[in-house]
Amino acid sequence: LFSQIQIYKPSTNSWSTMTMSGSNGGSVNTVFANNNLYVCGGFNLGGGTTIKSCTQYNTLSKVWTTINDMPVGVNHAAFATDGFNMFVMGGRSGGNVPSIGFDTVQIYNFNSKSWQSSSQSGSSIKPLPQARGGMGTGLYINGEVYVIGGETPQSTPNAPVNGVYSRVDIYNPVTNSWRRGPDLPQGMHGIYPVYDSVSNSIFIVNGGIQVGPSSSKIFLSLTLNDGGPSPPPPPP
Q1: Are 208 and 164 in contact (CB under 8 A)?
Q2: CA 90 centroid distance within chain
């Protein structure tokens, strides 16, 4: 695993690299807010152990700072930010292999520099309705966190087809409640959805369609006010 960050600058259409301070890991949970990059969890060098350490990089001062550990170390989780908090949903432990995931919801507040977790005794945070890992990036849209897809070993009780989830779970941090979104037409994992505010749509390009190493050329879009995702285009 590399302790390196690759940076793309659209204005110059160029890439640069930077060495990361602190723990280096794979499948980490990363968000950017208020001129700070937050990097938490993942699995360590060698890929055998999940870590819960966190670091913060300020893009103005160019200084790395170690921040409080996650309550539960996870890799392959869904992560997003509202600008005030970092949300880490689900994920799994161990190395870079599929395993039964967690339903844990972990929230880091940037101002108090503290974590809350649904796994903590007495916590009122509602856990992820379907425990799983392998989602990829989550999305924060209009006050809600979207957790899309994911995977689990096919030996898991009630495992989905091919061990890959098509479900979309949506969390409202204000009401501390979950609702179900429209399922994807194809179960997918290892995805990095993006949101376009102009069209009010989520786009997903490629992703795994079977548990473990797999790939696809699938393109999906979900317009949030039309009740469901559009069908994928014909294969190229």
Answers
A1: yes
A2: 8
